[in-house]
Structures are given as C-alpha cells and as structure tokens.
Amino acid sequence: MAELVSSNKVFGGDLRKYKFKSAALGGLSANFNLFLPSQASTTTKVPLLTYLAGLTCTEDNGAQKGGFFEAAAAKGLAILFPDTSPRGAGVPGEDDDWDFGTGAGFYLNATAPSYAPYYNMQTHVTLELPQIIEAAGLPIDFTRQSIFGHSMGGHGALTLYLASTTKQYRSASAFAPICNPMKCQWGQKAFTGYLQGGIEEAKTLYDATELIKRRNEPVNILIDYGTSDNFYKQGQLLPENFVAAAEGKNVSMRAQEGYDHSYYFISTFAPEHIHFHAKFLCD
Amino acid sequence: MAELVSSNKVFGGDLRKYKFKSAALGGLSANFNLFLPSQASTTTKVPLLTYLAGLTCTEDNGAQKGGFFEAAAAKGLAILFPDTSPRGAGVPGEDDDWDFGTGAGFYLNATAPSYAPYYNMQTHVTLELPQIIEAAGLPIDFTRQSIFGHSMGGHGALTLYLASTTKQYRSASAFAPICNPMKCQWGQKAFTGYLQGGIEEAKTLYDATELIKRRNEPVNILIDYGTSDNFYKQGQLLPENFVAAAEGKNVSMRAQEGYDHSYYFISTFAPEHIHFHAKFLCD
C-alpha cells in the first residue's frame, strides 16, 4: 500500500507525496506526487493528467516549478507526477552518466538482462500507478486520463499516448519533447542500453515519429518548443521530423521564439497546456 | 560592473542572472536575478518589486518556485531577487547552522566585529543593488519601488519598508514573515550573533513589530500566513504581535486555513501579492 509521506495545500487543493514498493521497478521504493484539486471528494471523482519529467528530474520538479496548479485547480483536474526512473537498482553503470540510468528511464520497459528487472517505467506509469492510486481509495476517474511531459518526459507522453492500444489517454501534450529518439544521441544511447534488440526494437514501440506515421485515427496533440533551446539546436528534439510524419493528423506544433529548455519556458505555457487537456477531460 | 551569467525568457520577459563584486558584502562575488517584463525598453522604464527569500535560500528559489511572473508580466513590473547572505566570507562559525550565517543574513547590517565586514545585506538590498542595476543601464524606474518576501525575507521586507527614512518602498507584503524577531529563537540568535549590541541594538532597527509601533503615517502592508505552518505553530512568526502593534494602521493580515510554510503556499497567493503592489506602482 502507498504510504503518505507529506501533504501541502496549494491553490485550494492538496499536493500529496506517496511512497510504495514498486513491483514494476523490481520491488524498489518509488515516490510519486499527486495533486488533488478541491473538487475531488468522496462523492466526486476527478480526471487525471499525468506529467512526465525530463532527464535528471524526480517527481518534484514539475510540482515545484511547472506552474500547473492554478489552472488545474480552476478546471478540477488531478495531476500525477511520477519519478523518472527506479532509484537504487544497483545495475552496474546506471549512475555513470546523467542521460542514462538513474533519472533517465525513458518511460520504456527494458529488455536488456541487467535493466529488465528494474527499468519498467512504461508499466509503472500506465498501469501500476493508477492501480496504486485506486487501491489508496483516492477519488480519481480513470476513464478520463490525459498525459503531458517535458523533454524525455515529452517523449514519454507522446509515445505512451500513441502506443496505447486501449486508448488510455484522451490527449497528449509536450514541452520540448524528444520527438524522434531513434535519430538523436539521447535516444540511441537509451535504446541500445535498455533494449536487447536496440534501436530496431524501439522503432515500433518507443519512437513518437515512427508511431504517428502508423497512426490512422485522429490525434489530440499539442507541442511547444523554444527556438533558443540548446538541445533543439543540437538535434536532440527533432520536432520537424514529427511534424512531417504527422501531416494531416491534427498535431499543433508551436515554435516559441526565444524560449529555452528550462522550467521558465514550461511555466510560461503551462496554463495553455492545462486548458488544452481540460477540453478533452472535463466533459 | 555586473556580469550577465544567464538569461531565460519567461512569460514574454527576461529573467537575467548577474554577478558582481559586492562592496557591501566585503568584496565577495554576489549573484542576483532580475526579471524584466516585455514592457521594459530603452524608452520605457518599469517599476521595481524586490523579493527577499527565506532561510537557506538563494536568488533562485523565488524565481523558480514563486509563481510571480505571469502577474508581473501582465502588470509590467520588474522583480529583483537578491541572495540571502554573503557567500564564502570565511567567518568562523558561519556554516555551522542552517539558521545563522550563510543563507541567513537577516537583511541587516552586522556590527559584531567578525561579521561586520561582510554581512551587510540591508545596504546590499536597499542601496547597492539599485546602483548596480542602474550602472548596468537597465530600464528601471527607481522612483517606483516596493518590496516583499518570505519568512526571514518577510521580516526583511517589513523592516526595510518601515525603517526607510527616504520612503524607498511604496508598499510591502510578506508570506509567513518573522514579525517580531526579538521575541523568537531565530531572531534572537541572529541579533545576538550579528550585532555587537545584541537584541537591544535590534529593537529600533530590525524588528517589524517595534517599528510599526513607532510609525505614525499610514502604511500599505499585506501579510499572509498559513494556519498549518509549523514555524507559525512554534512561535517563530508571531503575526498576532504585529497585528496588535499595527492597530488602526491599514495592515491587511490574513490567516490562510490549512496552508504551510512552503513555496506551494507562496505560489497560491503570489498573484494577489503582485496585484497588491501594482496598485501602488502602476500609476
């Protein structure tokens, strides 16, 4: 069962931190934050928006710096903030680099033998956390879910949205996402490290540009990135590839002049992302 | 001269971090952040709101977690974020405790011999930073200034506002301020450590409750604190003493049910504090 670690009142709602032993992450202790708006009660379940953070982050970065709560409180949306990887798995090499291993789970299920017992962030986010939250008796309506994220977490949001065979999420949005990880250094490093089949294995599962190509139904996707983002300039994000692959599929891709990769950029457009999801969740 | 360290676009404006050698802080390198709204230009100077952070913080906490920029951008206000103490003075004992010394300058000018050469945060905030900003040619209208802060920084905002003989600030506001530091452990420790004359020396200079007693003119002060704030419960803040001393002097003191001492509390009421100051600054 999830144990309540702390609780902070914010914009009339509650931000709660929980920890629990995660089956998806090899039995390790995992944390998550959950914002419950004041509308949530024993008689009223609220929709759930999941926020996936980027490289090096934890469950706290989006909660502390994202600027999501004013709009979420107004719209009556809960927000789930998972961590970005297992912590303390002890796999050799997992702490050598900032862009792989701890803090860099890439929201996939690992198949490489040393990572597979622990690095199953896809299952953790999509299946395990909803189960844990439901078991805790928290007033969430799991039939109304959407997902968003930043950078590696933007990759996570797009791929978990597009790859879901059950249509778990009604909409996806992202700040400066890694859009075509097969084609950038971050993604290639992650896929070759976590997946036994490497990049080829990732192609149909974990690459948003590949996934949107194969998508026939309409999508609900909003993406913002900054033109002064150094990772964009270095070719880690590749939004142009995603846009080209998504032609005619209702993707709103906005290049924001002068913004960078930081939470200052995220917080600026945070209210618009919350309102975008509210259109699909608050019906 | 101030050297630009970094710049982040946020809500259409610019958050800039500068460093410079601080005369007030004994020649040590000091950092500050300055938010410039998009209204600021070579032909338009904007008002300045100074935000003083609390114990253990730096110039970054308020910028990253305060949630001030959306409202400040809308109102066209600049926000200055100073650090909370000198860094690296090397005074024996300054790093022994989290509530004294580094990160805990208390916005006073020290007179105890070992601290006096470095710990002059009052001069740093009120005199030196405006001079440095003006010398950098930044478009600030220094005839329109107000000040706010959190906890130790709320103490700073109230005392610098009330003690200013030149009426440097038009209004002051605070989140969970230390209102009567002579009467609480944090303040007593600071005053006996930094001031040769100890608490008696602090009485007419650095205690907001004492200062408001002596004030005859009307004031413009807004204070919020949370009823679930552990430091409030421990008697570190003593807002009741300030209210009693301020009777009839136009102080708005609000007890916010269930909120604690964190930036989640601050961010919730941040827009109202910005709008409060804008009434006095945007005329």
UniProtKB/TrEMBL annotation, chains A, B:
Chief location: cytoplasm
Highest taxon above the source species: Eukaryota
Gene3D superfamilies found in the cross-reference section: alpha/beta hydrolase
Xref: Pfam families: Esterase
Annotated compartments: Cytoplasm
Record-linked NCBIfam families: fghA_ester_D
Purpose: Serine hydrolase involved in the detoxification of formaldehyde.
Annotated protein name in UniProt: S-formylglutathione hydrolase
